[in-house]
Amino acid sequence: MLNVETINLHYGAAQALKSVSLTAETGKVTCLMGRNGVGKTSTLRAIVGQHPISAGRITWNGEDVSKLAPHARARRGIAIVPQGREIFPLLSVKENLETGYACVRGKDRTIPEVIFELFPVLQSMLTRRGGDLSGGQQQQLAIARALVTRPKLLVLDEPTEGIQPSIIKDIGRAIEWLRDQGDMAIVLVEQYFEFARDLADSFAVMDRGEVVLAGSRAELDEQEVRRHLTV
């Protein structure tokens, strides 16, 4: 289980997160929602170690990882699919996937076959440069690259952004499948309400750097959540 406990995060003098708390359980999807600029991506950066927190604590499976570097968290099974995908455009699809080997050892330095079952288009494009793929295919590649690391906590930052509807459905099915295997916790940042609602086991809604609504899927008040998503 991931526990984010009352964390603060600053960019210089500006406070981006104020006492944010969040949990994510193995075999479940936690959706983090909110408008642009309310602290969702900052929360993910804190979880994976890309930006230090200034107060609070982050624990993963009982271990305090608050001060660990990103690569140390990756070796503990924490993987991120960043907003904007951030694939390597001049590397081939296969080489992009192999960059995931950096935080695994020995027999795990292979590309899992399940990746091509979830995203079959990638198998036919292994020699193509990442930059030549469509936006949706690049998003599938970014998710696949994270899966190469054999994560136990998968963090996805707006995976539907700028993606065509058919690939959004493929990504949704992949997230459902990963959740249903029961050995991975998933944190999903999403503004597309219907996508988040259909996947979420629990949710948290942010506004101005704080969590203002949180609960289980059964407790989700659609009208209230939508009020915090509209500009």
Automatic annotation (TrEMBL):
Family to which the UniProt record says this protein belongs: Belongs to the ABC transporter superfamily.
- Entry GO MF terms: ATP binding
Q: Which UniProt keywords apply?
A: Amino-acid transport, ATP-binding, Nucleotide-binding, Transport
Q: Which Pfam family is one of those matched by this entry?
A: ABC_tran
Instruction: State if rRNA-binding is listed as a keyword.
Output: no
UniProt cross-references to InterPro entries, sorted A to Z: AAA+_ATPase (IPR003593), ABC_transporter-like_ATP-bd (IPR003439), ABC_transptr_urea_ATP-bd_UrtE (IPR017780), BCAA_Transport_ATP-bd_LivF (IPR052156), P-loop_NTPase (IPR027417)
**UniProt keyword Nucleotide-binding present:** yes
UniProt source species:
Roseibium aestuarii
Q: What is this protein called?
A: Urea ABC transporter ATP-binding subunit UrtE
